[in-house]
Structures are given as C-alpha cells and as structure tokens.
Write a structure and sequence with these properties.
heterodimer; A: alpha+beta; 3-stranded mixed β-sheet; 10 helices; 9 strands; elongated; B: mainly alpha
C-alpha cells in the first residue's frame, strides 16, 4: 500500500487547528441525492473492495438500513422522514477536524492529514478498537473474521487527492450531490443554498460545529436526527479526555513527595515511640 | 527425582480432587477456545460487533481484574507508607493476589487485541500520548514490573539467598510509593477511557467524575478483596500459617472493614454529587435507572452500613460477608459502565457468548492454580514458616554447580 510508503515526516505532520478547519471537505446535499448508489460502486472500485452479494444497480438494497462495514466504506440509506417523504443519505467517515479516533488511538494509527483526510496506518495498529469506542459516528469497522485483522474505514481517497484527483465517490456522483472543496468555501456555499431556497432546507449545516467541526458537511430538508445523524455537542472530542490526561503530570509530581512525607512522619512517630519506651525502661 | 515431582506438583495421589477436575476441564476447554480465537479471529469466539467493540474480555478481564487487584497497592501503602505495621502479615498475600490479577489482566488484553504480537509497539513507538489507553498501557506495564519486584523477596527466601533478600528490603518503600502512584494513575484512567463516549454510555453512569469514581472504588475493592482473600486463604491454607498470625486476623479484618466503610461513605456522596451534576433525575425511574439505584443503594450504601454494623458489634463474620458483597458490587459497577450501560441505545444489546465466558473463567482458574502453587511453596502467608522445598532447590543447585 502506498499509504505505508508515505514520508514519515509528512505522516507525523502536526496540522494546526486553523489549517485543519480550512482543509478539503465535501458538502453532501441530500436534497439533490437520488439514491443511485454510484458513490458506493465507485468507492468499492477505487478501494479494490470485494464485490457485494447484490449488485450496485439493485435498488431493493435501500429497503433496509445498512451500516458501513470492513468491505463497504460508504453506504446510501433511505430514510422515511414523514409520510411519503423519503430522503437518501450517504454515510462515510466524517473526517472530523479534531478526530476522536486519533486522540484515542493508543499508537496514533489514525491521523488527521493536511488535506483533511483522517487516515489509518495499518503498519502500526494493534487492533485495540478504542477508535470504535471513541468515534461518535461509529465509523471505524473491524475485521472480526480475520486472524490478523485491521480497522477499515473511508480514507477520503487520500492518495487520489494527493495526485490531484477527486475522491472516488465525488467523481462518480451524477447529480452533483457531493461537492468537493475547501471547508470554509463549502460552508459558505451551503449557507448560500439555504439562503436562496430557505424552504428546501433545515437551516443548519450538519458538521459545521458538531464535535468541533467535520470536514464532511450535510444539508437536508428534514431534521438530521431523522437521517441517522446523531445530535452532538460542539465540543472537540479530544477535549473530553484531555482534562483527565492533564492530571497525570500533577499526580506524578505531587503523589511521590506526599507519600514519602507520610512515610517520614510515620517513621518519626515510631522513633519517638521507641525513645519514650527506652526512657521508661531506663528509669 | 521423586523430591522434584513433589516440589512441582505436590503429592500425585492428591491431585484428582473435584475442584481440580472441574477447573482443569474449564482450563482445557478455555485453551482450546483461545486457539480458535488465535486462528479464526475474534468473531469466531466472541459476540463482539461493529457497534460493540468491547465486551466481556475488556469489561471483566481488564476492568474487574484491575479493580480487584487493588489490594496490593492499598495494603502496601497502608503498611509501608502510612506506617500501620500491624497489617504487615497481609502485605505479601495481597501483593501476590495483585500480581496474579495483573497477569490475568494482561493475558485477557492480549486475547482481546486484534494484533497482540504488536504489543511492544506501544513502547517502541510511543506516539499515542494523547490516548487514555496509552497511559493505561504504560502504567499497567510499569506496575506489573513493580509488583514483580515487590514479590521477589519471597523467591529469595525460597532460594535461601539472604544477602539478596536484605538488599531488597531497602527498595520496599520506593516500590510502595511507585505502586500507589502508578495505581492512582491507571485505576482512574480506566474510568477516563469512557469520557470520550458521552453519547454511548448511559447518562446516569457518564460523568466527568468517572476517573475519581474508578480510583476511589478501587480502594474499596482493594480493602474488600483483602478481607475476603485473607479469610479464604487462612481457612484453606491453615497448614501454611504460623500460630502468631492466625490470632490477629480478626482484629485486622475489623480494621479493614472500618476503613472500607469510611471510603464507601465518601464514595456514596461522590456518586450523589455526580448524579446531581448530571441532572438526569428523570431517568431514575426507567429500567436503567433502577439498575443504577440497585448499584448505589444495594452495593454502596448497604455495604457501608453493614461494615459499620459489623465493626461496631465486632462481628467478623458480618464484615467478611460484607466484603464478599462489596466485591460483587465492584464487579457490578464495572460491568455496568463497560458493558451494560455502554451502547445502551443499541438493540439487541451485546451479550457475551458461552465461549467468551469460558475463556474468562479459564483465566480465573489458572490464576487460582498459580496462587495455590505459590502459596504452598513460598513464604507468602507467613514469613516465619519455612519455605517448602528450599533444601531440594539447594541440592539441585549444588548438583548443577558440581557438574559445571
């Protein structure tokens, strides 16, 4: 995999908050999506994933809600939001600005890259699955049936992007429901669409602020909870544990001194006790 | 040769007891399932899924294992740092229980990791410094080492190496300090692990105080485990005791019960503060709320009251039963946080497979076998009782030396 060969300096690159916010992203306009699943087929092809049991032309697949899996990094689901109103929505990794998976990873196999992608280093992963616990969208998927398993998920076509190509799904979408671009521009574009046709949209860009922002953004004509997108706070997920982690140096510094002090006090007490009993005996 | 066999397995005629047969069967079955897991992947043995990536092996083997192994640092700290020398006879068995507990945890973790052979990567490539799991891993590794160093004096005595033994006693205080520091860090971090999943853990259990809860309750677990474990080993291994220790145990048990009552009291009010802080009172009258109430009333408030009653009436039996009850309560809490209230909105909810249960049981049995084997040979329960087989070891040693 070319991902393994990526220059280590580049891999270890520390991307600042602002740069992450301004990195590439995709605006998914569900009001345009026709549920054709071309994105699924393209994703399957560019990632060389095994062919599914039912072909990508088979629309009956949409009758059931599906989740992404180790062999399908994106899936389109059909949600009935009210009587007779159906909305199709593509699910994939949201590529958070401050990814929970990356902050949770015991060996930082998950990394936020400068082009916006949250990528996975299979040469490091231990398979602890804490990224799966941490991800608020339950995106990372694990190969449970393999003796030497990996985590699998959408990589935002990191390598294609580096070569100046569009992500597979974006390129394949026939109705331009997926718009690729710099995140701030996508947010501007989304705002414009809401402004131009206010009746067509819920006035909220999902992913602008959720979990501190995501590189993939959604627009919809119905509340996002009805489209399987969880209601989340605006807080960066890594912040949830950074407070607790911050106490580590304090404990490491203070506890030993304090405990040694306790030991010394009890030692003094013992000595005083011995002294007193010796006096007692001598008298 | 015959002596060596006795040293290794004891009297061969006494080997086939009902306990040995049943536990042996579980161990054999468990080892088979471990083989299956290694060759066919986690999916072949566990009920884990894409939505429930952590199950019994994390919830029981790791979460409960670490909590119940807290007796080591609790008692070592009490005796060596706070200077309560009366509790000295309990230190070695508590450290052995703790050490074996951590070995059990590490084995459980190895089985649960997708690629366990990469475990050294955590130290070779220490990249995940923002990860709570990284901190847990480092602390557990360090504390396991500390516990080995705390326990080896029993080996030096077994081998009759008195000079090494004397040198080692200078390390005692430092090891005790390290033990308390490392335990504070990783016991609390096991709770911090869940802070990153606010939408997945039920609101009644999710709290910013989770690290504090895990740390405080580990002290309760440690004290209660020492009460239970000392009572059991003094009953089962009476022949390994010297008479002087035997008489003190009741007093020590009452002392431990008193301390446990105080810590439970603090823990109960900390839980109430967390409940008020979370402000989810409305959820109390739901099935999960009832479970929560059972936990804090039945397994925190009740044992606190029972310990007080037992200590006030000097009823050692009550204190011991409360010890067992409290240990069950700690298991209940760890199961709630890591399995039952975790992913509470997902149905069907995860249930461990019989194979996961068997493997966990097999690991517990192995730890018990190892405990028994060591207690029967090394000076663990009492230091003035001669170690079994020291002469045999010396003979073997000198025979080897002559050959060389």
């Amino acid at each position: 995999m070319a991902l393994l060969a990526a220059n280590p300096a580049q891999a270890a690159e520390a991307v600042g908050r602002l740069r992450k916010e301004e990195a590439m992203g995709v605006l998914v306009d569900t009001t345009l999506c026709v549920g054709c699943r071309s994105c699924e087929a393209a994703c399957n092809k560019v990632n060389a994933l095994p062919k599914p049991d039912r072909s990508f032309d088979d629309d009956s697949v949409l009758d059931q809600l599906r989740d992404t899996s180790p062999t399908a990094f994106t899936v389109v689901n059909k949600y009935t939001v009210s009587k007779g109103v159906e909305i199709t929505r593509k699910k994939q990794c949201m590529h958070c600005v401050e990814p929970a998976c990356s902050s949770a990873c015991i060996i930082k196999a998950m990394e936020k890259r400068s082009n916006g992608a949250v990528t996975y280093r299979k040469d490091l992963c231990l398979g602890c699955r804490y990224c799966m616990v941490a991800c608020p969208f339950s995106v990372p998927k694990f190969e449970y049936s393999k003796a030497s398993p990996f985590i699998r998920k959408c990589q935002f076509c990191f390598e294609r992007q580096e070569q100046g190509e569009l992500p597979g799904c974006v390129e394949a979408c026939p109705v331009e429901a997926l718009k690729y671009g710099r995140r701030p521009e996508l947010i501007e574009e989304a705002g414009k669409r809401i402004h131009d046709t206010p009746d067509a949209y819920v006035h909220h860009i999902y992913g602008e602020h959720e979990v501190g922002g995501t590189s993939w953004l959604y627009l919809a004509g119905a509340p996002f909870e009805k489209l399987g997108l969880p209601q989340l706070s605006d807080k960066d997920y890594p912040e949830l544990t950074s407070g607790a982690m911050g106490t580590v140096p304090a404990i490491l510094l203070m506890w030993p001194a304090l405990l040694a002090g306790f030991h010394y006090l009890s030692h003094l007490k013992d000595q005083a006790h011995e002294e007193r009993s010796r006096h007692h005996v001598s008298r | 040769m015959k002596k060596l066999i006795y040293l290794l397995i004891g009297d061969p005629k006494k080997l086939f007891t009902p306990f040995n047969l049943i536990s042996g069967l579980i161990i054999v079955l468990g080892l088979g399932l471990i083989g299956l897991r290694m060759f066919k992947g986690l999916g072949a043995v566990t009920n884990l899924s894409q939505t429930t990536p952590w199950g019994l092996w994390i919830g029981f083997d790791v979460m409960c294992g670490v909590a119940l192994a807290a007796g080591g640092y609790t008692i070592a700290g009490t005796v060596h740092l706070f200077g309560l020398k009366d509790y000295e006879p309990l230190v070695r068995p508590a450290i052995l229980t703790g050490l074996l507990g951590y070995v059990f945890v590490v084995v459980g973790l190895v089985l649960d990791l997708g690629r366990p052979w990469r475990m050294p990567f955590i130290m070779l490539f220490p990249r995940g410094v923002t990860s709570v799991l990284f901190e847990v891993g480092m602390c557990v590794a360090a504390y396991l080492t500390v516990q080995v160093l705390e326990f080896v004096p029993a080996f030096w005595e077994w081998l009759g190496w008195s000079r090494v033994r004397r040198f080692w006693s200078q390390l005692t205080i430092w090891l005790a300090i390290l033990g308390v520091v490392l335990s504070t860090l990783h016991q609390s971090s096991l709770g911090s692990l869940f802070l990153i999943a606010p939408t997945k853990l039920h609101p009644l259990w999710y709290s910013m105080y989770l690290p504090l809860y895990f740390f405080i309750s580990s002290i309760i677990a440690g004290l209660s485990m020492v009460i239970v474990e000392s009572a059991l080993s003094h009953k089962l291994f009476t022949y390994r005791l010297s008479s002087s220790v035997h008489f003190d145990l009741d007093d020590l048990t009452l002392g431990l019960g008193k301390t446990a009552a105080a810590v439970l009291y603090v823990y109960f009010f900390l839980k109430l503060i967390g409940l008020a802080d979370g402000n989810h009172w409305d959820l109390l009258d739901t099935p999960y709320g009832h479970l929560y109430l059972i936990e804090i009333v039945g397994f925190v408030a009740l044992p606190c009251a029972l310990y007080v009653f037992g200590v006030r009436t000097r009823n050692v039996r009550v204190v011991r039963i409360t010890g067992v009850w409290t240990v069950i309560g700690i298991l209940f809490n760890r199961f709630n946080v890591s399995i039952i209230a975790m992913n509470w909105q997902i149905s069907p909810h995860y249930r461990p497979s019989w194979m996961e249960v068997t493997v966990s049981l097999a690991l517990v049995m192995m730890a018990i076998w190892l405990f028994r084997w060591l207690v029967n040979r090394l000076p663990v329960l009492s230091t003035d009782k001669p170690a079994v087989g020291t002469n045999t070891l010396r003979e073997l040693w000198s025979a080897e030396a002559e050959k060389a």
